[in-house]
Every structure is written in structure tokens, then in C-alpha cells.
Write a structure and sequence with these properties.
This protein is of the alpha+beta class. It contains 20 helices and 10 strands. It has helices at residues 3-13, 16-21, 48-52, 55-68, 82-99, 127-144, 161-173, 187-190, 193-201, 207-217, 240-258, 277-293, 331-344, 353-371, 377-399, 402-411, 416-423, 429-432, 436-441, 444-449; strands at 107-113, 119-124, 178-183, 221-223, 226-228, 262-266, 269-274, 305-307, 317-319, 327-329. Helix 4 packs across helix 6, helix 9 (193-201) runs antiparallel to helix 10 (207-217) and helix 16 packs antiparallel against helix 17 (416-423). The longest helix is centred in the C-terminal third of the chain and has 23 residues, at 377-399. It is globular. It starts with a helix and ends in a 12-residue tail after the last helix. Residues 16-44 have low confidence and may be disordered.
Length: 461
């Protein structure tokens, strides 16, 4: 089905009847936002489920879910098949949503290895539930997001991890050179459903939507073909989980603001900046008690600490300890980067140098999109040199015989004497990758011509 035909058919699926039941246009001729339905709190609106089922909201949700792709849930329906499924079944599904009888399916449990060891458990909803969650998210986020703390950056529109890191950098520059680094243990698995729904009920008065959110939380998980009930937690993997997590941790933000702390929070990573170690230890002790007894969550003591900011990492970055600190890539992030480069440039992969560079370029550009925010170009310069040396070692091994090595070197401008001496060398590829003859033949410009990006071009001020 081409895009134009699919769009026309979906116009029929999200019918005019839905549009007639949507909130009426205001005096300016536009549909009012949900925030305009406010009465006593940011979300006291009895018609929120109708807002969720508005055609425009549904179309936006479907576009987002399809563009995000993702694996199918327990029913096996992929996001590519979702539009056809909605064409056939949407009227009945809509009726269930508006009557408050819709029942989501259990999520599919998958485990993703963490970079620092262990696994992260994800819960993948089926494509239909992802679509409904996205539609609900768009309505709730419009109201809730403006009420969240300015120091919360995770999973929010127009807010990024780079902004969170820059905010931390500003606090350090102001003289708050000790950080209380708090990590919550298995946060998404430990969220208390009753406390969460109580906070939702303070903002949502539509009982159908409250029931729908509760059923999403209690839908259960399927692991190894067995469905188990979920009594706590908000499984990572669904569109709603990040918003609900921000709602839970908004209570922590308000407590930190009430105490007058300088802090930055990104999802369940929270850094509080203070002037002395002693003050930091007091903050750590009091917040641990607050999180444990009030929020019913657990602080991961092995990953939490009171320390200098340049000895900790935050969202993959760390800082220099200068008077005016600079953002630098955290050592662990550099090591993970090197591990991936070693995989892509392994001399036993059996792919051509051109293909290897094409795959490497895709990874480097993605990595640049995030870590190009650093302010330490010397690190990137060293990584550039290291990558090119690995590629020279790959090329040297590919050439194999002495005769071919001589021809390749000489054809690329290496003097005959240098080429002959290098071709007869008994040293291995890694040693030869820094030989003058090899460097002269495989110049930086040569790798640029093959499409290798330079990391030094990615740095920002």
C-alpha cells in the first residue's frame, strides 16, 4: 500500500463521527487544547478520552509509532501492518476506549545487555497498544509537561541530555564543585502502582482514562511463553512509561526545590551540586531517607556517591577540574567507543576496506550526534589517529604477500626503496600501521576520499 492510498483509507478509519464528538472550536475557530479545559488543576477535564480519540491526535500517534518502528509484541503484528489492522478494527476499538472497557495485552519481556554489565528488562507492548499509549501520551503530555520542574530534562519535548549536561557545567562553574550523584535501583521495575495512580488521579478526572492507565500497568508480562502479573513497575518500552516516570519523580524535584538545592535530573539520574563534601553527605543521607520512605523507591548505594564532578560521569560526559570547567567524554564512554571500533575494524572480519569504512562512517556519525557536544578536541584528535592506524593495519593484512605490498605502496606514491623495505618487513600489521611508508601511502586524505569522517570536525564550543 503506497503512502497516499494509506492516508486516504486512514481518513475513513478515523471517521467524521469522531470529529463531531471532539471538543468544539473556540472563538478563534481552532480546536481548544486540553490545557484550555482546566478547571481546578492542570487536567480536570471529564472529556479526556474523547480528546485521545480525536482524528488529528490519532493520526499523529500513528505516524509516530510507524516511524519509530520497533519489534512486534506478543500478537506478532508489526507496525507496518498496524494501519491495515486499524482500518478493519478501529470502530470497535474506539467504542471500547470510550466505554472504558478496553483491555491491553501483556507486554513481551526482552533483556538488553547494559554497557557496564547486567541487563535492562524491557517490556514491548503490541503495536496496537503502542498506538493507543502514544495517543494518550500526546494528550497528557500537553497538560503535564508545563507543570514539571525546569531542572528535569529527560523524556520531555524540546529538552535534551545536552541541556542537562550544560546545566550541570554551569553549577560547577558557579562554585558548586561537589556532586551528590544519586542512582535509583531498578527504578522502572519498582514504581508503586497505587502511589502512581494516586498522583495521576490528582490530574485526571476522566475515570475511563484512569482505568485505561491502570490496566496498562497491570497488563502483565510474557517471558518464555508464560504470562506473569505485574504488581509494581512501569515497564520500559512503551510510550507512556517515560511520562509516568517523570510524574513519579516530580515529587523528588519539588522536594529538592523546596530545600533550595541546585540539581539536574534526567530520568532516574539525579545530580545535586553543593559546595562541600560535608554538605553533600548530609544531602545524600536525607534524600536517601526521603526516597526510601516517601517515594517507596531504593537508592543504588553501589552507584551513588558524593564526589568531585570530574570523578563522576553524567549522561556519558564528565568535566575538567579547571576554574571554568569544560565538558569531556567520560572515560567509560571512550572505552565503549573503542570496543565498538575494534569490532568494526577487526582484521578477521573478511570485508573490504571500503565496506568497512562505510559501516564505520555510519557509527561515527551517530556517535558524533551525541558526543560531538564535548569541549576537549585533543581526545577526538587522538581517537582519529587511532582509528586511521587500525585501518592501515587492516589494509596491510589484506595485501598479504610482499609483492602485492610493494605494488600497493609504490602505486600510492611511496618511494621504491621505502616500499621495498616495508614489503620485506617481518613485523605484524599493527606495528607496520605506523611505518612511514604505510602512512605515506594511506594518507588521511585517502581515508577521507573513501568516506571516513573526522571526529575533530564534530566538536562544539
Amino acid at each position: 500500500m503506497d503512502d497516499k492510498r494509506q492516508k486516504t483509507q486512514l481518513e475513513l478509519a478515523f471517521t467524521d463521527k469522531e470529529r463531531s464528538e471532539a471538543p468544539k472550536p473556540n472563538s478563534e475557530g481552532t480546536e481548544p487544547s486540553i490545557a484550555e479545559c482546566e478547571v481546578e488543576s492542570p487536567a480536570m477535564c471529564e472529556m479526556m478520552m474523547e480528546a485521545v480519540c480525536q482524528p488529528d491526535n490519532l493520526r499523529r500517534a500513528l505516524r509516530r509509532v510507524v516511524s519509530n518502528k520497533g519489534s512486534p509484541g506478543i500478537d506478532g503484528i508489526t507496525v507496518k501492518k498496524l494501519p491495515d489492522y486499524l482500518l478493519q478494527y478501529w470502530p470497535a476499538i474506539r467504542e471500547q476506549l470510550l466505554s472504558g472497557t478496553y483491555e491491553p495485552q501483556p507486554v513481551l519481556r526482552v533483556e538488553i545487555p547494559k554497557p557496564d554489565g547486567g541487563v535492562r528488562k524491557l517490556g514491548i507492548p503490541c503495536a496496537l497498544d503502542r498506538f493507543i499509549q502514544q495517543a494518550v501520551l500526546q494528550v497528557l503530555q500537553e497538560q503535564w509537561d508545563p507543570t514539571f520542574s525546569a531542572q528535569s530534562f529527560g523524556f520531555r519535548p524540546k529538552r535534551t541530555a545536552h541541556q542537562a549536561v550544560a546545566c550541570s557545567q554551569q553549577f560547577i562553574a558557579e562554585g558548586y564543585r561537589w556532586v551528590v550523584d544519586i542512582d535509583l535501583e531498578k527504578f522502572f521495575d519498582r514504581v508503586n502502582h497505587d502511589r502512581l495512580m494516586s498522583r495521576v488521579a490528582n490530574r485526571v478526572s476522566d475515570k475511563r482514562l484512569l482505568r485505561l492507565l491502570r490496566t496498562f500497568l497491570n497488563a502483565g508480562v510474557m517471558e518464555n511463553g508464560v504470562v506473569s502479573p505485574t504488581k509494581e513497575g512501569a515497564p520500559q518500552g512503551g510510550p507512556l512509561s517515560p511520562l509516568l516516570s517523570n510524574l513519579v519523580l516530580d515529587e523528588l524535584d519539588r522536594e529538592l526545590e523546596r530545600r533550595g538545592h541546585r540539581f539536574v535530573r534526567y530520568a532516574d539520574d539525579c545530580n545535586i551540586y553543593v559546595r562541600t563534601r560535608r554538605a553533600g553527605q548530609r544531602v545524600m543521607d536525607s534524600l536517601t531517607a526521603f526516597i526510601t520512605h516517601k517515594l517507596k523507591l531504593k537508592v543504588n548505594t553501589s552507584k551513588s556517591a558524593v564526589a568531585r564532578p570530574w570523578k563522576r560521569k553524567f549522561l556519558g560526559f564528565s568535566f575538567t577540574h579547571h576554574y571554568q570547567p569544560k565538558r569531556r567524554i567520560a572515560p567509560k564512554a571512550v572505552e565503549r567507543f573503542k570496543e565498538r571500533i575494534r569490532e568494526l575494524t577487526s582484521r578477521t572480519r573478511g570485508v573490504s576496506l571500503r565496506q568497512m569504512i562505510a559501516e564505520l562512517a555510519v557509527y561515527l556519525r551517530g556517535w558524533e550526534g551525541y558526543f560531538g557536544h564535548c569541549q576537549t578536541p585533543s581526545v577526538l584528535r587522538d581517537l582519529d589517529r587511532w582509528i586511521r592506524r587500525r585501518l592501515r593495519a587492516v589494509a596491510w593484512k589484506h595485501w598479504r604477500s610482499g609483492n602485492r605490498r610493494y605494488r600497493e605502496l609504490h602505486s600510492r606514491g611511496t618511494p621504491r626503496q621505502w616500499a621495498a623495505k616495508a614489503a620485506c618487513s617481518r613485523y605484524g600489521p599493527w606495528r607496520m600501521s605506523r611505518a612511514p611508508a604505510v602512512i605515506q601511502a594511506l594518507t588521511d586524505a585517502y581515508f577521507v576520499k573513501l568516506g571516513l569522517p573526522s571526529l575533530q570536525c564534530f566538536t562544539t564550543a
